[in-house]
Write a structure and sequence with these properties.
Strand content: 15-25%
Radius of gyration: 20 Å
Shape: globular
Bound molecules: threonylcarbamoyladenylate, magnesium ion
Structural class: alpha/beta
Order of helices and strands: EHEEHEHEHEHEHEEEHEEHEEHEHE
Helix content: 25-40%
Length: 340
Amino acid sequence: METKVLIPTEENIVYAARLIESGEVVGIPTETVYGLAASAFDESAVEKIFLAKGRPQDNPLIVHIASLDMLPMITANIPETAQMLAERFWPGPLTMIFEKNDRIPPAVTAGLSTVAVRFPSHKVAQALIKKTGLPLAAPSANRSGAPSPTTANHVFNDLNGRIPAILDGGVCTYGLESTVILLKGEGDITLLRPGAVTVEMLREAVPHVTVDDGVLHEIKAGQQALSPGMMHKHYSPKTNVVILDAPLQKFVSFLNSHADESVGAMVFEGEEKLVGQIPCVTFGAADDPMAQAKLLFSSLRAVDSLGVQTIYARMPARDGMGLAIYNRLLRAAGFEVIRL
Ligand code: TXA
Ligand code: MG
């Protein structure tokens, strides 16, 4: 199959909509990362998503809508807290988990009775959803386990020949996937995946916000995860990634004392000179978490072309957007952190 990369003109959005209506999958831009979209009502189209990505069958998808009116097409009920959060944060990078209705096939939710829903702010995603009139199931458009795609080119590199088309909407604004929350009761939510709608922002809106253990800790075999995605290997380059939790000076001396041709570094922008001859990639300035988020997955993709065996990464801050950056980097590192 030839994979077309399309500029999102009106004509190409109609073309992509027709593909989706005929049971196909399409790579689409969103403000977080690129998604691989199919009609959430079409079980065999949804199965094509899992096939193209090589995604484990037990990992449910997020369903995307382009207006609040579309929510009842998917959900069994809408709690007041969800309604309030939707008005506050949608369209945008927040995913909420609802009881699903009967129109959503089990393939979308991996057999769960709940469904994850998001209303993206990206104009191309919205235009496509509106054109089809359908809620679109879409996970990130990477091969399962690889870093999420933040450009159409990343999607093409991962899925060329496996999907018919990609709409090229440029570089994603945030670069990390949406915040995922579970509603426990009115005014009581649990954070399952951190994102650009930060814990601090959620705490301003809701009295009780709990950060699930799985956000910063490895789920051990036999433990139950609230979100199936927490169980799976994620975002990993082939190179072994290790996070060094150390001030810059200690980071540099550790690198120098371990420097041989098998070692590389992943540092903040502006720190390249300090690591000398050691091959390195950068991911945004130390004081600019939004830039770090936007560049993280591209940098993780670039790591494998350095030709090293182990890459030592700088430790991001853990507040605001930093929590999301740390969460992704931890998974990329298989939870390997060295504290100096
Ligand atoms: O920003 C995003 O959310 C992107 C763009 C494309 O919208 N999508 C995305 O999808 O990141 P994906 O499939 O890569 O991640 C979905 C996450 C997984 O960790 C999955 O386990 C979790 O959401 N999830 C989906 N449905 C769930 C449910 N019913 N209960 C708990 N977790 C759920
Ligand atoms: Mg993903």
